[in-house]
Design goal:
The complex is a heterotrimer of chains A (about 170), B (about 500) and C (about 650). Chain A is mostly helical. Chain A is built from 6 helices and no strands. Helices cover about 70% and strands about 0% of the residues of chain A. In chain A, helix 1 packs antiparallel against helix 2 and helix 2 runs antiparallel to helix 3. Chain C is mainly α and about 650 residues long. Classes of the chains: A mainly alpha (about 170), B mainly alpha (about 500), C mainly alpha (about 650). Chains in contact: A-B, A-C, B-C.
Chain lengths: ~170, ~500, ~650
C-alpha cells in the first residue's frame, strides 16, 4: 500500500487541478481564467511527479505553464474588448448536466474495472529513457511530429497573411 | 533501408510538399518574369508527387516488398497499399480539379503542400499499427485539413474552418482518451499486443474496454462522419472551398474507415468486445443512413445536400463493419465490401464535386434551384453529374450498383437482414433527392443561354472520375479482387 | 428452315441497337450534330437499320425455337466477375417465351421508329430522341434475353431509366418533369421487392441462373416459405413496372412523353416487362399457392379499376393508359389462373393493337394539336385512314370477332372459367367496361362535329394552330396500316394452339400438370362478344345518339363519378398523405425544423441575446460549434449506457 504522504499529495493535487479547472469554466473574466488555468496545469504537473514521471512533469510546466498560457494571455491582450465582463452562455445548465453525466459514466466504468496495477519502483530519472525511445522505437512519430509543426507553421502564415488573392 | 523503402509512398509526398514550398520561394526570388509559369509548374510538381507515390506503391507490390517498418510502427500490407492507391489517386484528382480554382489565389504552393501532407497522413492512418503513430498521423491529416477548409479566408470559409478545428480538436481528444484507456487496460500501444490481451480478457476489464471502444468510435466517427458525430458536416462542406470539400468527403472519410478497420479488426477483433462494436456499428449504420437521407431531402444547397448524402453513404459503409462481427460473422466479405464501396465512392463523389465546382463557379451559386437548365448550357457536365448521381443512387450499370449489391449481400449473409432492408429502403429515399438535381438540370429553363465550359484540367478530372465509375460498374473484377486481397490481411 | 441460331447472333440482336445508341451519342459528343455534318435524319435511319437487323435475326431465333418446340436453347454462361466467394455470370438464353418477346419488341419498335420520323420531324431533340429509343430497345432486348436474374435486373433498371428519360423528354414542361419523377420513384418501390427477392434467392440457393432457379423451384428443392417470399418480391417488381394496383399511378402521368414513346414503352414493351417477369418465373409462382393467388387478385382488381377510370378520362392518351393498365391486369389474371400461354398470347396481340391505338392518338394529336377528346370530334371525315385503323384497333381491344383481341381475350376467359369461375365473371365485367370506354373514345374523337383543337406544342408546327385538321403524312400512316393489318390477323397465329405449345415448351416437366389448358368453348366466345357489343351500344347511346345524356348519367351516379374523377383517391393518398404529409411534411420537415428552429434558433436567439447584452459577442456561430460538440458527448454517453446497461445498473445497485 502507498505511504500516507503520497496519498495526501494526490488528493491535494487532484483538488487543486479540478477546482481551478472548474473555476476556469465558471469565471467570466478571461484573464483570471487563464491564471487559474495555469494553476490547473501546475496541479497536473504535480500529479506527474507523484507518478515518478519527472521529465513529463518538467515538460508540462515548460510548455503548458510557460508557453501556452503566456500565448493565451498575449492573445487576450491583443484582442480589443475581449477581456472582461463576458455574458453568461446559454449552455450553462445543459453543459453542467452533460459534464456531470460524462464524469458519472467515466467514474462508474473506472470503478467497475479491474485495473492492472504496476508496482511502484524507485524514483529514477526518465529523461534519457524517453530520449532513447523517441529516437529509436518511436522515431517515426517523432519525425512526423516535426512535419506536423511545419504544416501548422504553413497554416499560420497562410491564415494571418492579409492578402488572399493576387492583384492580377 | 527496408523501413525507408516501405515508407516511400508517404515520404515522397512529404518531400514533394517541401520541394513545392522551396520552389515557390525560388520563383519569388526569380522576379516577375517567370511568374506566368508558377502556377502550372507547381500544379505539375504536386501531380508528379502523387504519381510517384502511386508508382512507388506499385513497385512495393511488384518486388513483394511488404512488411513492417520502423520497429513495428507501420505495416505495409495489401490493406495499406490499397489505401495508398486510393488516397494518392484521390489527391491527384483533387489537385487536377484545383488548378483552375486557384487561378487567382496567391497561396498556391501552400495549398498543394497541405494537400500532399494531408494525403501522407491519410496513408499513414491506413498503415500504422501503433497507437502513438496513429495519433500523430491523425493530427497530420487533420491539421492540414483545418487550414485547407479555412483557405479562402472569407467569412464562410473561416467560419467553417473554425468549426472544423474546434470539433476536430474535441474528437481528437476523445480518440486520445480512448487510446489512453486501451493502453491502461493492456499496457501496450502496439495494436497486435493489445489484440492479444483483449482476446484473453476476462469480464473484469469489460466496462473499461467498452468505454475505450466508444471513445474510439466517437473520435474516428468524426472523420467518418457518422451520426451522431456528423454535426459538423453540412456547415463545413458548405463553407469549405469545393475541391477541399471533395477531398474531405472522400479522402478524410476513407481515412477514418481505414484506421477504424485497422484498430477494430487488429486490436479489438477477438473476444467478446467484437460483438459489442458490431451491434453499435449496425445501429449507427441504420441511423446514419436514415437521418442523412431524410435530411438531404429538404436541402436547397447542393454542397449541403452532398454533405448529408455522404453521411448516408458512410452509414452504408458501416453495414460492412457490422457484418464483420455480426451474429453470423463474415470477416472477409464485410471488410472487402467496405473497401470496394470506398473505392467506388471515391470516383463517384469526386466526380459529383468536380461537376459542382465547374458549374457553380460559372453560375455563381450552389443552390440546386440555380442548376436549372444546366443540361442546355453544358450537356457534358450535366451528363457527368447525372452519371455520378445515378451511381450514388445505386443504379446499374454504374459502380454504385455493384457496391450496393455487394454490401447488402454481405448483410444478408451475416444474418443482418433488417439492416439490408433499412439500406434498401433508404436507397429509394435517396433516389428522390439525387434525381431532383438531375431533373432540374434537364428540365426547367436556364437563367441564361451562355454555355458553361469547364477548364481543361477540370474536364480531365471529370473524365477520369466518370470513366472510372463506369468501368468499375461494368468490369468490377479488378477492384473486387484488390478489395478481397486487402481484406484478407485480417483473415 | 435455317440452322440453329449460334450464340454470337443472339448477342448481335442485343448489341445492334446499343451500337446505334453509341454512334449517335458519339456524333453528339463530337459536336457533329451541332455543325450539321451529322444530319438529324441519319439518327433515325441508323436506329431503324439496327432494329430492322435485330428483327430479322429475331425471326431466325423464332425459327430455331420452333424446331425445338419452344424448349430452351442452352448457351454456356460467361464468367463476368469471379472473386473469392462471389461469382457473377452473364449469358443469353433463347426459348419460346424469349422468341415471342423478341418479335414483339423488335417489330413494334421498328414501326414506331418509322412513325416517329413524321411525328418528331423538326423537334430540336431529334437526335436525343433516337439515341434514347435505341438505348431503350437494346435494354429491352437485354432484359428478355438475360439468362441470370442479376443481369435481368440490370437491364430492368436500364429500361426504367430510359422510360424516365423519355417521359421527361419535353423537359420544359413542368408536368413532364413531375411525371418522370413519379414514374421513377413509384417503380423503384417495386424494384425494392425485386432486389430483395434477388438477395433472398441468392443467399438461400447460391444461384442467380434463371434456369437453375426454375429447376430448383419445380423440383421442390427450395423451402416453400422462401419460394413464396421470393415470388412475392418478384411480383412487387413486376407490379411496379407493369403498373398494377396499387403501384399503377405512374402510368397515366407517364403519357407526358412523346406519343410514339407511349406507344412503344408504355403500351407495347416496357410495361409488359412485369408480365414477362412473372411468366419467366412461372415455375416458381405456380408452386406457391400464396404467390399465384396474389397475382390473380391484384390482376383482377387492376383490370376492373383501371377500366372504370378509363371511362371518365378526357385525355385520349390517359384513356389508353388506363386501358393498358387494365389489359396488363388481364395478363396477370391469366398468369394467376395458370394460363401462361393465354397470358403471353394476349401480351402479343395487345402489343400490336395498343401500339396502333397510341399511334392513332398521335396522328390525331398531330392534326388537332390536342389530346383532349372534348376538343376533337368529327375527325372521321378529315382523317379517314387514321379513323379506320384506330377503329380496327379499338374493336380488337374490345375483342370483336375475328380481330386479334378476340382470340387472346377469349382464351383468358376460357381458362378462367375452367380454373376460377369468380375470376371469369370479373373478366367478363371488364370486357363490358372496356367496350364502353372504347366506344366513348371512338365516338368523341371521330364522331359528331369538329370542336377546334388547340395549338401544337411540338415538332415543326409548334405553336401554330391548324385551321382544319388534315391527314398525317405517309410515314405516319404506313405504320398505322401495317399495324392494323397485324391487329386483324395475328390472332389466327394461335388458332391451332401452336403458340401455346412453344410458350409452354420450355417449362420444367414437373410443372406441366399445373399449367391450365382449356379447350375452345363456344358459349363463352359468344357471350364475351355479346357483352362487348352491348358495351359499345351503350357508349353509342350516350355519346353519339345522345339518347341518354352523359350529364344525367353522371348526376345519377354522382358519388361514383366523384370517386372516379379522383381516381379512387389513390393519387391523393400517395401525394397528399404519404409523400407530402408523411415524408415531406413529417419526417423531413421535423428534421428541417430541428435544424432550423432548434439549432439555428438556439444559436440566433443566443446571438441576439449576446448582441443585446454585450457588444463583445462577435462569433455568433460559435454557439453552434458548442452544440455540435455536445452532440459528440451525448452520443458517447448514450452508446456506453446502452452497451453497458447491465453492468452500470449493477454498480448503482438496481
Amino acid at each position: 500500500m502507498e505511504d500516507t504522504g503520497s496519498i495526501v499529495a494526490f488528493w491535494l493535487l487532484a483538488a487543486l487541478t479540478l477546482g481551478s479547472a472548474l473555476a476556469v469554466v465558471l469565471i467570466r473574466d478571461l484573464i483570471r481564467a487563464v491564471v487559474l488555468l495555469i494553476t490547473s496545469f501546475l496541479g497536473v504537473a504535480g500529479l506527474y511527479i507523484t507518478l515518478s514521471a519527472d521529465f513529463v512533469a518538467v515538460v508540462q510546466v515548460l510548455i503548458y505553464v510557460g508557453a501556452i498560457s503566456v500565448l493565451m494571455l498575449f492573445a487576450i491582450m491583443l484582442t480589443p474588448r475581449a477581456g472582461r465582463n463576458n455574458a453568461e452562455t446559454f449552455f450553462r445548465i445543459p453543459g453542467i448536466l452533460l459534464a456531470g453525466l460524462m464524469a458519472f459514466t467515466i467514474s462508474l466504468v473506472s470503478l467497475d474495472t479491474d485495473w492492472a496495477v504496476v508496482e511502484r519502483g524507485g524514483f529514477e530519472e526518465t529523461a534519457s529513457a524517453i530520449g532513447e525511445a523517441l529516437l529509436d522505437k518511436y522515431v517515426l512519430p517523432f519525425e512526423l511530429a516535426a512535419v506536423l509543426l511545419l504544416v501548422a507553421m504553413l497554416g499560420a502564415i497562410l491564415l494571418v497573411h492579409p492578402e488572399g488573392t493576387d492583384e492580377e | 533501408m527496408d523501413s525507408v523503402n516501405r515508407f516511400g509512398p508517404e515520404l515522397i509526398l512529404l518531400a514533394m510538399a517541401a520541394v513545392i514550398i522551396l520552389a515557390d520561394i525560388g520563383w519569388a526570388l526569380a522576379g516577375t518574369g517567370a511568374e506566368r509559369m508558377r502556377r502550372p509548374a507547381l500544379g505539375a510538381l504536386a501531380l508528379t508527387g502523387t504519381a510517384a507515390s502511386i508508382i512507388w506503391s506499385a513497385l512495393l507490390i511488384a518486388f513483394d516488398e511488404q512488411g513492417e517498418a520502423f520497429s513495428g510502427m507501420i505495416r505495409v500490407d495489401d490493406f495499406a497499399l490499397f489505401f495508398n492507391f486510393l488516397f494518392a489517386g484521390t489527391a491527384a484528382i483533387v489537385i487536377l480539379a484545383s488548378i483552375d480554382f486557384l487561378r487567382r489565389n496567391r497561396f498556391v504552393a501552400e495549398y498543394y503542400a497541405l494537400i500532399l501532407a494531408s494525403t501522407a497522413g491519410m496513408m499513414l492512418l491506413a498503415s500504422t499499427i501503433d497507437l502513438i503513430a496513429i495519433f500523430v498521423a491523425l493530427e497530420l491529416t487533420g491539421i492540414s485539413l483545418y487550414i485547407l477548409v479555412a483557405f479562402m479566408k472569407d467569412g464562410r470559409s473561416s467560419e467553417a474552418g473554425l468549426k472544423y478545428l474546434l470539433l476536430g480538436a474535441i474528437s481528437s481528444a476523445v480518440a486520445l482518451y480512448g487510446m489512453a484507456y486501451l493502453f491502461g487496460i493492456t499496457g501496450s500501444t502496439s495494436l497486435d499486443e493489445i489484440g492479444l490481451v483483449v482476446s484473453e480478457a476476462n469480464g473484469e476489464t469489460r466496462s473499461a474496454l467498452v468505454l475505450a471502444m466508444v471513445f474510439l468510435i466517437a473520435g474516428f466517427g468524426f472523420k467518418m462522419a457518422i451520426v451522431p458525430f456528423q454535426m459538423w458536416v453540412p456547415d463545413v462542406y458548405e463553407g469549405a472551398p469545393t475541391p477541399v470539400t471533395a477531398f474531405l468527403s472522400v479522402g478524410s472519410k476513407a481515412a477514418g474507415f481505414a484506421v477504424v478497420m485497422r484498430i477494430f479488426l487488429t486490436a479489438l477483433g477477438d473476444g467478446s468486445i467484437s460483438s459489442d462494436w458490431a451491434t453499435v456499428f449496425a445501429i449507427l449504420a441504420a441511423i446514419s443512413m436514415s437521418l442523412g437521407n431524410i435530411t438531404a431531402l429538404v436541402q436547397g444547397n447542393i454542397k449541403r445536400m452532398l454533405g448529408y448524402s455522404s453521411i448516408a453513404q458512410a452509414g452504408t459503409f458501416l453495414i460492412g463493419l457490422a457484418v464483420v462481427a455480426a451474429a453470423d460473422p463474415q470477416l472477409l466479405l464485410g471488410t472487402s465490401a467496405v473497401l470496394f464501396f470506398l473505392g467506388t465512392y471515391a470516383f463517384t463523389n469526386l466526380g459529383a464535386f468536380i461537376a459542382v465546382i465547374a458549374i457553380s463557379s460559372k453560375i455563381g451559386s450552389d443552390q440546386i434551384a440555380d442548376y436549372a437548365g444546366v443540361a442546355k448550357r453544358s450537356p457534358l457536365l450535366a451528363l457527368g453529374l447525372t452519371i455520378c448521381l445515378l451511381s450514388l443512387t445505386g443504379i446499374p450499370p454504374t459502380a454504385g450498383f455493384i457496391a450496393k449489391v455487394y454490401v447488402f449481400n454481405a448483410a444478408v449473409q451475416a444474418d443482418l437482414v433488417w439492416l439490408a432492408i433499412v439500406g434498401v429502403l433508404n436507397s429509394v429515399v435517396a433516389a428522390y433527392y439525387y434525381l431532383r438535381v438531375v431533373l432540374n438540370m434537364y428540365t426547367a429553363e436556364p437563367a441564361s443561354e451562355e454555355s458553361i465550359q469547364p477548364g481543361y484540367y477540370l474536364g480531365l478530372a471529370m473524365v477520369v472520375a466518370v470513366v472510372g465509375l463506369l468501368v468499375i460498374g461494368i468490369f468490377p473484377s479488378p477492384l473486387l479482387e484488390a478489395s478481397e486481397a486487402a481484406a484478407r490481411v485480417f483473415g | 428452315m435455317l440452322n440453329q441460331i449460334p450464340e454470337g447472333v443472339v448477342w448481335a440482336i442485343l448489341f445492334l441497337p446499343f451500337g446505334s445508341f453509341a454512334v449517335i451519342s458519339l456524333a453528339a459528343l463530337l459536336g457533329l450534330t451541332r455543325t450539321g455534318s451529322w444530319e438529324a435524319r441519319f439518327s433515325g435511319y441508323l436506329t431503324m437499320a439496327a432494329i430492322a437487323a435485330s428483327f430479322l435475326l429475331s425471326l431466325w431465333a423464332l425459327d430455331s425455337v420452333l424446331q425445338e418446340d419452344g424448349a430452351r436453347i442452352g448457351y454456356d454462361a460467361h464468367e463476368w466477375v469471379t472473386v473469392g466467394s462471389l461469382r457473377f455470370d452473364i449469358g443469353v438464353t433463347v426459348d419460346g417465351l424469349t422468341a415471342i418477346m423478341l418479335i414483339v419488341v423488335t417489330s413494334v419498335s421498328l414501326l414506331v421508329q418509322f412513325y416517329s420520323q413524321g411525328y418528331m420531324r423538326g423537334d430540336p431533340g431529334y437526335n436525343r430522341y433516337y439515341a434514347f429509343m435505341s438505348l431503350f430497345t437494346g435494354s429491352m432486348l437485354g432484359l428478355v434475353l438475360a439468362s441470370n436474374i442479376l443481369q435481368l435486373f440490370v437491364f430492368w433498371e436500364l429500361v426504367g431509366l430510359c422510360s424516365y428519360l423519355l417521359i421527361g423528354f419535353w423537359f420544359y414542361r413542368d408536368s413532364a418533369r413531375r411525371a418522370a419523377t413519379k414514374a421513377f420513384v413509384v417503380t423503384r418501390i417495386g424494384d425494392l421487392g425485386f432486389l430483395s427477392a434477388i438477395l433472398l434467392i441468392w443467399t438461400k440457393t447460391d444461384q442467380l441462373d434463371i434456369g437453375q432457379i426454375q429447376h430448383l423451384a419445380a423440383t421442390g428443392m427450395i423451402g416453400s416459405s422462401v419460394i413464396t417470399w421470393f415470388a412475392l418480391g418478384l411480383f412487387a417488381g413486376a407490379a411496379g413496372k407493369s403498373a398494377q394496383f396499387p403501384l399503377h399511378v405512374w402510368l397515366p402521368d407517364a403519357m407526358e412523353g412523346p406519343t410514339p414513346v407511349s406507344a412503344l414503352i408504355h403500351a407495347a414493351t416496357m410495361v409488359v416487362a412485369g408480365v414477362y417477369l412473372v411468366a419467366r418465373f412461372f415455375p416458381v409462382f405456380i408452386v406457391s399457392e400464396e404467390a399465384i393467388n396474389a397475382v390473380v387478385v391484384v390482376g383482377a382488381i387492376t383490370a376492373i379499376m383501371a377500366a372504370s377510370l378509363a371511362i371518365v378520362a378526357t385525355d385520349i392518351k390517359r384513356v389508353m393508359a388506363y386501358s393498358t393498365i387494365s389489359q396488363l391486369g388481364y395478363m396477370m389474371m391469366a398468369l394467376g389462373v395458370g394460363a401462361i400461354g393465354a397470358a403471353i398470347f394476349h401480351l402479343f396481340t395487345h402489343a400490336f393493337f395498343k401500339a396502333l391505338l397510341f399511334l392513332g392518338a398521335g396522328s390525331v394529336n398531330h392534326a388537332t394539336g390536342t389530346f383532349d377528346m372534348r376538343k376533337m370530334g368529327g375527325l372521321a371525315r378529315f382523317m379517314p385512314v387514321t379513323f379506320l385503323t384506330t377503329t380496327v384497333a379499338g374493336l380488337a381491344l374490345v375483342g370483336v370477332f375475328p380481330l386479334a383481341g378476340f382470340w387472346s381475350k377469349d382464351e383468358i376467359l376460357i381458362e378462367a372459367w375452367a380454373e376460377k369461375p369468380l375470376i371469369f365473371w370479373t373478366a367478363l365485367a371488364g370486357v363490358f367496361l372496356t367496350a364502353v370506354y372504347v366506344g366513348r373514345m371512338l365516338f368523341l374523337t371521330f364522331g359528331g362535329e369538329y370542336k377546334g383543337g388547340e395549338a401544337s406544342d411540338h415538332g415543326a408546327q409548334a405553336n401554330s394552330r391548324p385551321a382544319e385538321p388534315h391527314e398525317s403524312p405517309w410515314v405516319m400512316l404506313l405504320p398505322l396500316v401495317v399495324l392494323a393489318t397485324l391487329a386483324t390477323t395475328v390472332g389466327f397465329v394461335n388458332i391451332t394452339g401452336g403458340m401455346n405449345d412453344i410458350l409452354e415448351g420450355w417449362l420444367p416437366e414437373e410443372t406441366h400438370e399445373l399449367v391450365a389448358a382449356g379447350d375452345f368453348v363456344l358459349w363463352i366466345s359468344v357471350v364475351s362478344v355479346a357483352v362487348g357489343l352491348a358495351g359499345l351500344g351503350l357508349a353509342w347511346a350516350i355519346y353519339s345518339r345522345k339518347a341518354i345524356r352523359a350529364e344525367e348519367v353522371s348526376a345519377a351516379l354522382e358519388p361514383v363519378q366523384v370517386l372516379l374523377d379522383r381516381k379512387y383517391y389513390l393519387d391523393d393518398l400517395y401525394e397528399t398523405v404519404i409523400v407530402k404529409g408523411v415524408i415531406m411534411r413529417g419526417a423531413a420537415a421535423a428534421l428541417h425544423a430541428w435544424d432550423r428552429y432548434v439549432i439555428d434558433g438556439v444559436v440566433n436567439g443566443l446571438a441576439s441575446l449576446m448582441r443585446f447584452s454585450s457588444e463583445k459577442y462577435r462569433l455568433a456561430q460559435s454557439g453552434q460549434a458548442q452544440l455540435y460538440g455536445a452532440a459528440i458527448f451525448i452520443g458517447v454517453i448514450v452508446i456506453v449506457a446502452s452497451v453497458l446497461q447491465d453492468e452500470l445498473l449493477g454498480i448503482v445497485g438496481l
